[in-house]
Amino acid sequence: MKNTTATCIAAATGFLAVVLGAFGAHGLKHILAQNGTTTVWEKAVFYHFIHAVMLFILAERKTFPAVAWWSFLTGIVIFSGSLYLLAVTNAHWLGAITPFGGTAFLIGWGWLLFCPKQK
Protein backbone atom coordinates (compact mmCIF):
# COMPACT_ATOMS: atom_id res chain seq x y z
CA MET A 1 0.00 0.00 0.00
CA LYS A 2 1.24 3.48 -0.77
CA ASN A 3 1.72 5.96 2.06
CA THR A 4 -0.79 8.33 0.43
CA THR A 5 -3.49 5.65 0.46
CA ALA A 6 -2.72 4.78 4.08
CA THR A 7 -2.85 8.48 4.99
CA CYS A 8 -6.24 8.90 3.31
CA ILE A 9 -7.64 5.86 5.11
CA ALA A 10 -6.20 7.15 8.40
CA ALA A 11 -7.80 10.56 7.82
CA ALA A 12 -11.15 8.94 7.02
CA THR A 13 -10.88 6.83 10.18
CA GLY A 14 -10.14 9.92 12.29
CA PHE A 15 -13.00 11.80 10.63
CA LEU A 16 -15.32 8.90 11.44
CA ALA A 17 -14.15 8.89 15.08
CA VAL A 18 -15.12 12.54 15.46
CA VAL A 19 -18.47 11.99 13.70
CA LEU A 20 -19.32 8.97 15.85
CA GLY A 21 -18.27 10.79 19.02
CA ALA A 22 -20.56 13.70 18.21
CA PHE A 23 -23.36 11.43 17.03
CA GLY A 24 -23.21 9.46 20.28
CA ALA A 25 -23.23 12.63 22.38
CA HIS A 26 -26.13 14.21 20.52
CA GLY A 27 -28.04 11.95 18.13
CA LEU A 28 -27.90 8.79 20.22
CA LYS A 29 -27.92 10.39 23.65
CA HIS A 30 -31.42 9.14 24.49
CA ILE A 31 -30.84 5.56 23.23
CA LEU A 32 -27.49 5.24 24.99
CA ALA A 33 -28.97 6.57 28.24
CA GLN A 34 -31.94 4.22 27.92
CA ASN A 35 -29.61 1.25 27.34
CA GLY A 36 -27.19 2.41 30.03
CA THR A 37 -24.38 2.17 27.46
CA THR A 38 -23.09 5.73 27.23
CA THR A 39 -19.73 4.73 28.72
CA VAL A 40 -19.48 1.82 26.28
CA TRP A 41 -19.92 4.25 23.36
CA GLU A 42 -17.38 6.63 24.87
CA LYS A 43 -14.86 3.78 25.29
CA ALA A 44 -15.35 2.80 21.64
CA VAL A 45 -14.75 6.39 20.49
CA PHE A 46 -11.70 6.74 22.74
CA TYR A 47 -9.93 3.66 21.37
CA HIS A 48 -11.10 4.45 17.84
CA PHE A 49 -9.63 7.95 17.98
CA ILE A 50 -6.30 6.98 19.58
CA HIS A 51 -5.70 4.33 16.97
CA ALA A 52 -6.86 6.56 14.11
CA VAL A 53 -4.12 8.98 15.14
CA MET A 54 -1.65 6.08 15.18
CA LEU A 55 -2.74 5.07 11.67
CA PHE A 56 -1.93 8.58 10.51
CA ILE A 57 1.45 8.65 12.27
CA LEU A 58 2.43 5.27 10.84
CA ALA A 59 1.21 6.16 7.35
CA GLU A 60 3.53 9.16 7.31
CA ARG A 61 6.65 7.13 8.09
CA LYS A 62 9.21 6.66 5.38
CA THR A 63 9.31 2.92 6.04
CA PHE A 64 5.66 1.91 6.24
CA PRO A 65 5.06 -0.53 9.16
CA ALA A 66 2.29 -2.48 7.44
CA VAL A 67 1.73 -5.12 10.15
CA ALA A 68 1.20 -2.52 12.88
CA TRP A 69 -0.91 -0.29 10.60
CA TRP A 70 -3.24 -3.13 9.54
CA SER A 71 -3.45 -4.41 13.12
CA PHE A 72 -4.60 -1.02 14.36
CA LEU A 73 -7.17 -0.71 11.57
CA THR A 74 -8.46 -4.21 12.31
CA GLY A 75 -8.62 -3.35 16.01
CA ILE A 76 -10.68 -0.24 15.30
CA VAL A 77 -13.16 -2.19 13.21
CA ILE A 78 -13.50 -5.13 15.61
CA PHE A 79 -12.95 -3.53 19.04
CA SER A 80 -14.68 -0.20 18.55
CA GLY A 81 -17.15 -1.57 16.01
CA SER A 82 -18.41 -4.26 18.38
CA LEU A 83 -18.72 -1.72 21.20
CA TYR A 84 -20.62 0.72 18.97
CA LEU A 85 -23.06 -2.03 18.06
CA LEU A 86 -23.35 -3.22 21.65
CA ALA A 87 -24.08 0.32 22.85
CA VAL A 88 -26.86 0.87 20.32
CA THR A 89 -28.45 -2.59 20.35
CA ASN A 90 -27.71 -3.58 23.96
CA ALA A 91 -26.83 -7.03 22.56
CA HIS A 92 -24.30 -8.08 25.18
CA TRP A 93 -23.09 -11.08 23.18
CA LEU A 94 -21.17 -8.55 21.06
CA GLY A 95 -18.88 -8.12 24.04
CA ALA A 96 -17.48 -11.57 23.23
CA ILE A 97 -16.12 -10.19 19.93
CA THR A 98 -14.45 -7.13 21.46
CA PRO A 99 -11.34 -8.94 22.81
CA PHE A 100 -10.38 -9.96 19.26
CA GLY A 101 -10.12 -6.27 18.43
CA GLY A 102 -8.13 -5.69 21.59
CA THR A 103 -5.78 -8.47 20.52
CA ALA A 104 -5.33 -6.74 17.16
CA PHE A 105 -4.38 -3.54 19.02
CA LEU A 106 -1.86 -5.51 21.09
CA ILE A 107 -0.35 -7.07 17.97
CA GLY A 108 0.12 -3.60 16.49
CA TRP A 109 1.76 -2.20 19.61
CA GLY A 110 3.84 -5.34 20.06
CA TRP A 111 5.03 -5.14 16.48
CA LEU A 112 6.21 -1.59 17.05
CA LEU A 113 7.91 -2.64 20.28
CA PHE A 114 9.63 -5.84 19.17
CA CYS A 115 10.30 -5.25 15.48
CA PRO A 116 12.47 -2.13 15.45
CA LYS A 117 13.60 -2.71 11.86
CA GLN A 118 9.96 -2.48 10.80
CA LYS A 119 9.26 0.76 12.66
CA-atom Rg in angstroms: 15 Å
Please write the string of helix (H) and strand (E) elements: HHHHH
The stretches of 5 or more residues where confidence is low (pLDDT under 50) are none
Whole-number total of structural domains = 1
Helix residue percentage: over 70%
Report the β-strand fraction as a percent range: under 5%
What is the oligomer described by this structure?
single chain
Distance between the termini: 16 Å
Ordered list of secondary-structure elements with their pairings:
Elements: H1 3-25, H2 29-35, H3 38-59, H4 66-89, H5 98-114
Can you give keywords for this protein?
single chain; 119 residues; mainly alpha
In words, what does this structure look like?
The structure is a single chain. The chain is an all-alpha fold and 119 residues long. It has one domain (3-118). Helix content is 78%, strand content 0%. It contains 5 helices and no strands. Helix 3 packs antiparallel against helix 4 (66-89).
Give the structure's gist in a few sentences.
78% of the residues lie in helices and 0% in strands. With 119 residues, the chain is an all-alpha fold.
